């Protein structure tokens, strides 16, 4: 029996201010010590009461961590003797160097990967940790203002009246009443020309982009990508085999002439014309018409991602690019997860009539239908008027939160970050003084508990002044002011 290594336990990195619970931190620390061989099979572990006292934790915290380790087979209890590192673990498999965790090993791409697999594995930022949505200044909807009780009531009602068929597989194109509701909504609010048959419900906008790329592109074909633009869309398109090329964005949106002169034979253009992500500009009418003319002439496709057009605070939402299309070259993408709550995982495509059958077949093969319950509850939420009322409340709330962020920035971040109001969206860009690296600024902000993505992470070729993306819709006034103060302290260290 190997004696207790008390020094190892007292040196475990436990951070009470971390978003990770202490029992999870303790579990991770002991598990990693076992896997790298610092705690060998047969090693006796301290008693939970004594370990809790030496670490300054509650005994329940230690017991929760040990229970998880026990359930997963890392440790074992011996009646009357205590708790030990499991003797059934083969020592030759537990020699992982300190600098390399098991997960890091798994992330190394194998030489046997396909070319497409290697592109996916090598994509920068393709694997990342999801941060809590309420962390300043993450970009997302106001979960604290979502009508959870109403949603729960609609879900319970659906469960009560559902027939046995209701619990089976939904049609590949989506739940028919939801498709009807979406077609009506986008026709009224976004000027989209479509029937319910053209609506295909998918599990989020990433799935929509992936499906469209697989149907419309052959591997190696060129796709225009806004620069700066949505990094996830770039990675999804690359993962589908497309050759993604950057096309600059200015104050009128995508520079169509630049795209035509540099990559005239492109097969697809990915755009966010109503509220460009991340700059927030609107594509001018002249640019829209030029893009549609290019697509019609070259028989290319336009992928219109209309990710947050609902949140326009001055005048009516702009008409969609799809509504101007007369040659059926636009595939329209909408996201309901970004508008309501991320866990919903529902979005939709609106495809030209001639492509409906192809898209539905491809969807059934690549992904399959989204859960019927969520689709039916959402259909009720829309058709009974709750969706429109929720959007109206959120527009009012987001205008207030944006104004709060602008005031907080003016008071707390003067000389450090220039933040100006915008007429749409769920985030603002804070511009850094000349010479300040936005990646370094973002890292300092993260260390202070602030999510402020660097603008340079969204660009491939175009050089721009440093900036930070600041979401305001997901955080309340108190969080905005506290976040601004902490961000200011972080940025002073960068200077």
Task: Give an account of the 3D structure.
The chain is α/β, with parallel strands linked by helices and 495 residues long. It folds into three domains: 98 residues, Arc Repressor Mutant, subunit A, CATH 1.10.10; 241 residues, Aspartate Aminotransferase, domain 2 (3-Layer(aba) Sandwich), CATH 3.40.640; 106 residues, Aspartate Aminotransferase, domain 1 (Alpha-Beta Complex), CATH 3.90.1150.10. The protein contains 17 helices and 14 strands. The chain has an eight-stranded mixed beta sheet with strand order 3-10-9-8-7-4-5-6, with helices on both faces. Strands 11-12-14-13 form a four-stranded antiparallel beta sheet. Strands 1-2 form a two-stranded antiparallel sheet. Strand 1 and strand 2 form a beta hairpin. The longest helix has 27 residues. It is globular and about 80 Å long. About 4% of the residues have low confidence.
Secondary structure layout:
Layout: H1 6-10, H2 22-35, H3 48-55, H4 59-71, E1 75-78, E2 82-85, H5 102-107, H6 115-122, H7 148-161, H8 176-189, E3 199-202, H9 205-216, E4 222-227, H10 231-239, E5 243-250, E6 253-254, H11 256-262, E7 268-271, H12 285-298, E8 301-305, E9 330-335, E10 347-350, H13 356-366, H14 372-383, H15 386-412, E11 418-419, E12 427-431, H16 438-447, E13 453-454, E14 467-471, H17 477-494
Parallel strand pairs: 4-5, 4-7, 7-8, 8-9
Antiparallel strand pairs: 1-2, 3-10, 5-6, 9-10, 11-12, 12-14, 13-14
Helix pairs in contact: 2-4, 3-4, 6-10, 7-14, 8-14, 9-10, 9-13, 15-17, 16-17
């Amino acid at each position: 029996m190997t004696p207790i290594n008390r020094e190892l336990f007292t040196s475990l990195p436990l951070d009470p201010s971390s978003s990770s619970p202490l029992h999870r931190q303790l579990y991770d620390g002991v598990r990693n010590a076992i896997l790298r061989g610092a705690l060998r099979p047969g090693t006796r572990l301290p008693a939970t009461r004594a370990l809790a006292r030496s670490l300054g934790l509650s005994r329940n915290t230690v017991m929760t961590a040990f229970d998880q380790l026990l359930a997963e087979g890392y440790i074992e209890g011996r009646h009357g003797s205590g708790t030990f590192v499991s003797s059934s673990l083969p020592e030759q498999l537990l020699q992982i160097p300190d600098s390399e965790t098991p997960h890091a090993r798994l992330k190394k791409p194998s030489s046997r990967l396909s070319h497409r697999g290697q592109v996916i594995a090598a994509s920068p930022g393709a694997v990342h940790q999801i941060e809590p949505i309420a962390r300043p200044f993450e970009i997302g909807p106001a979960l604290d203002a979502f009508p959870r009780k109403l949603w729960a009531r609609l879900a319970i009602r659906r469960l009560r009246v559902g027939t046995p068929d209701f619990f089976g597989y939904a049609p590949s194109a989506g739940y028919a009443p939801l498709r009807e509701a979406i077609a009506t909504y986008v026709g009224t609010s976004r000027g989209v020309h479509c029937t319910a048959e053209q609506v295909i419900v998918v599990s989020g906008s990433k799935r929509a982009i992936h499906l469209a790329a697989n149907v419309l592109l052959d591997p190696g074909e060129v796709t225009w990508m806004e620069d700066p633009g949505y990094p996830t869309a770039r990675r999804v398109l690359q993962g589908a085999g497309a050759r993604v090329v950057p096309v600059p964005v200015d104050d009128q949106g995508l520079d169509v002439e630049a795209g035509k002169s540099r990559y005239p034979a492109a097969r697809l253009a990915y755009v966010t014309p109503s509220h460009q992500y991340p700059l927030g500009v609107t594509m001018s009418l002249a640019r829209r018409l030029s893009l549609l003319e290019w697509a019609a002439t070259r028989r290319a496709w336009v992928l219109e991602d209309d990710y947050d057009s609902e949140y326009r605070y001055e005048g009516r939402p702009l008409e969609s690019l799809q509504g101007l299309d007369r040659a059926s070259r636009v595939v329209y993408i909408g996201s309901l997860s970004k508008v309501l709550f991320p866990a919903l995982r529902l979005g939709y495509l609106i495809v030209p009539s001639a492509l409906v059958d192809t898209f539905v077949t491809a969807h059934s093969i690549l992904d399959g239908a989204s859960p019927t319950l969520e689709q039916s509850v959402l259909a009720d939420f829309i058709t009974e008027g709750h969706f429109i009322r929720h959007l109206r409340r959120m527009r009012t709330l987001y205008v207030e939160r944006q104004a709060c962020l602008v005031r907080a920035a003016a008071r707390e971040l003067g000389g450090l970050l220039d933040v100006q109001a915008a007429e749409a969206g769920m985030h603002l860009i804070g511009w850094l003084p000349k010479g300040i690296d936005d990646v370094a600024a973002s890292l300092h902000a993260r260390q202070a508990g602030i999510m402020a993505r660097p603008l340079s992470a969204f660009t491939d070729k175009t050089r721009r002044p440093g900036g930070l993306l600041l979401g305001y819709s997901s955080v309340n006034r108190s969080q905005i002011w506290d976040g601004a103060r902490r961000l200011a302290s972080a940025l002073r260290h960068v200077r």
